[in-house]
Amino acid sequence: MNCHICSRAPTSRLRYLCPSCARNQLYQLRIENARILLENESLGQQINNAVSSTNTHEASLERPESGLLSLRDEDHVAWSIQIIANEKAKSSLRRKLLESRTENLRLEIKKKKRNISEHKLTLAQRRSDAGSAKYQLAEREAAILSGIHNNAKRTDHLWHSLHSKTAEARIFLCREAAYLYNLRQKVKKKDGEVKEAYTVGGIPIIDLRDMNGKLRCFICQMLSKY
């Protein structure tokens, strides 16, 4: 039948992490220990009976009227004593093995308890660290976001300022270049329309709008005038 706590089979080779499994395993060892003690007691009783029987036979030998003990009875008593001694030795060996297994299980249970205690301490420390990390988390996040927004606004302001300065510098350079190249603007009236014409160093600049829809030969003639 499987354990009702960890659902392991009784013959599982895994280590005991469940107190119910360890207790069930100890029950079997206790039963074995009780059986060995009963066998030891039975063997002791047999030894006492054999010794009593031997004493009775010796007492009968001391009496002249009791007769001599037969050789078969002596062999039987010696054989019984030998069997009892062997059984007692086996019982002692089984008891030692049982005590060794019990001690190993006891040490393993202590080790598991110590590991569980250390694991609980580790979990408690982790919970404490997590609580410390979450303490005033919203306030810290708000402060960090506020700093980021301020930096973004400052950067945006610097970018606009730099853009304005760059535009002003380009305007100044264009004005100076136009002055150096003697750029002039002239206004002409043609067919009742006012047209603007530009010259650089006295050379007129072709208005590209006048070239729209014109033939190639006409464009060449216009360019040849200049």
Automatic annotation (TrEMBL):
InterPro entries: UV_resistance/autophagy_Atg14
Keywords associated with the record: Coiled coil
Keyword Ion transport (UniProt): no
GO cellular component terms attached to this protein's record: cytoplasm; protein-containing complex
Keyword rRNA processing appears in the UniProt entry: no
Similarity field: Belongs to the ATG14 family.
Protein name as it appears in the record: Autophagy-related protein 14
Organism: Aspergillus pseudonomiae
Lineage: Eukaryota, Fungi, Dikarya, Ascomycota, Pezizomycotina
